[in-house]
């Protein structure tokens, strides 16, 4: 259930993470200016995160008396983390396969939405 909820709200999480990163960069007095400037440049190679290393991540630590959570360098995060928001591509495995079932479910959902919309008109 939790994984489904997280996947449904990917865009909200991404926007929330960006706002936390922006607040953290502006509110972190101990952030190194070179690191902050490097994080704001467009990603040309290995830079994948939206905030500089050692940036205080506001709102992540919700327990009392917990140390502030600091952003790590990109190399210290696991490789699978950077692929979470990628869309999964199913191979076309013929009739009755997973790709066709997903396509049919999507078409059925859209048909139901259209019917429900027409009932309100």
Write the layout of secondary structure elements.
Blueprint: H1 2-8, H2 10-27, H3 33-40, H4 98-120
Written description of the protein model:
The chain has 121 residues and is mainly alpha-helical. Helix content is 46%, strand content 0%. The protein folds into 2 domains: 2-87, no CATH class; 90-121. It has helices at 2-8, 10-27, 33-40, 98-120. Residues 1-11 and 28-44 have low confidence and may be disordered. Belongs to the mitochondrion-specific ribosomal protein mL54 family. Keywords: Mitochondrion, Ribonucleoprotein, Ribosomal protein, Transit peptide. It is found in: Mitochondrion.
Overall number of strands: 0
Name the average pLDDT.
73
Helix content: 40-55%
**Assembly state (oligomeric):** single chain
Strand content: under 5%
Q: Would you identify the regions where 5 or more consecutive residues have pLDDT less than 50?
A: 1-11, 28-44
Tally of alpha and pi helices: 4
- Overall geometry comes to elongated
Whole-number radius of gyration? 21 Å
């Amino acid at each position: 259930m939790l994984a489904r909820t997280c996947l449904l709200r990917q865009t909200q999480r991404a926007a929330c993470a960006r706002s936390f990163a922006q607040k953290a960069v502006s509110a972190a007095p101990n952030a190194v200016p070179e690191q902050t400037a490097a994080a704001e440049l467009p990603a040309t190679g290995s830079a994948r995160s939206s905030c500089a290393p050692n940036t205080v991540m506001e709102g992540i630590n919700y327990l009392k008396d917990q140390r502030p959570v600091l952003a790590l360098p990109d190399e210290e995060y696991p490789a699978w983390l950077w692929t979470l928001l990628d869309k999964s591509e199913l191979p076309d495995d013929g009739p009755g396969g997973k790709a066709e079932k997903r396509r049919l479910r999507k078409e059925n959902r859209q048909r139901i939405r259209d019917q429900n919309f027409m009932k309100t008109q």
